[in-house]
Design a protein that fits this description.
alpha+beta; Phosphatase 2c, domain 1; four-stranded antiparallel β-sheet; 8 helices; globular
Length: 266
């Protein structure tokens, strides 16, 4: 819709890595809020910055103890979301705006690779979705879309006070070796594939096998080779995002952490 009208979009994403960790973040600014596109940008980048700094050097007494490491990293994911909330509150003060003017959702994934332990941690505030594909081709949704009483209504955003509570709901995957791919997406992808608990497989299948025909209820999809197996996965994903489905015209943002070479054959 924004591309058609030549207007700005509200989604944002950020990602980065060092030797021990990879961080992905997707944020969707609330369209009814004046500066939500700024809020989503600031929040996503603040989370990535915070988590990279927090995981660069983990005390050996923590890194070698599975329970302590899980607790430590969970606390850091929570702190990162709170840091994003604080950043938007501070931005509102400096700019003379209300904090709600910067409202946005926040999806976070942290993959930590220690010498002895490997963990995947996620947190979700607002709508959108975090899904994973395992090597046995099973899928799982991590967290839940935070919606209100009406369709499309989100009940909690960053930097609302409730975000500080939602930030504590961190999911931890310990068997990371079984995970093939992790996907974070805004509701521009969640809605066309609703319910994602059942339809995530369709997304992952297209990521790994390509698109030879549009999905049954889609108006159109660009025929293409497997996005994640192309020389430029980013370009392949950008092409995949061009799908058409009646009534679905929201911003679409996706961040994907996947193994290369892949281990899944659909």
């Amino acid at each position: 819709m924004h591309a058609n009208g030549g207007t700005h979009r509200e989604d944002s994403l950020a990602f980065d890595a060092h030797d021990r960790a990879t961080v992905l973040c997707v944020s969707d600014g609330a369209g009814s809020c004046q500066h939500s596109r700024i809020g989503s940008h600031v929040a996503a980048h603040r989370v990535v910055e915070f988590l990279l700094a927090a995981t660069e050097k983990v005390d050996s007494a923590i890194a070698t103890d599975a329970t302590k490491l899980k607790d430590f990293l969970s606390a850091q994911v929570t702190a990162a979301a709170i840091a994003a909330t604080d950043a938007l509150v501070e931005l509102a003060k400096k700019s003379g705006c209300a904090p709600k003017d910067f409202r946005c959702t926040l999806l976070t994934a942290l993959h930590y690779r220690g010498e002895q332990h490997e963990l995947l941690l996620t947190n979700q505030i607002g709508d959108g979705a975090i899904c994973l594909l395992r090597k046995d081709k099973s899928t799982a949704r991590l967290g839940a879309s935070d919606s209100g009483t009406h369709s499309g209504e989100v009940s909690c955003f960053v930097p609302d006070d409730c975000a500080r509570v939602k930030a504590k709901a961190v999911e931890v995957i310990s068997d990371v070796a079984a995970v093939e791919c992790v996907l974070l997406c805004s509701d521009g992808i969640e809605d066309p594939f609703y319910p994602l608990e059942k339809k995530a497989t369709a997304i992952f299948r297209q990521f790994y096998t390509g698109v030879d025909q549009p999905l049954p209820d889609f108006k159109a999809q660009l025929l293409q080779l497997a996005p994640l197996l192309q020389e430029s996965a980013a370009w392949g994903l950008a092409q995949w995002l061009e799908f058409e489905k009646r009534g679905e015209n929201d911003d679409r943002t996706v961040a994907v952490l996947h193994r290369l070479p892949g281990n899944v054959i659909f």
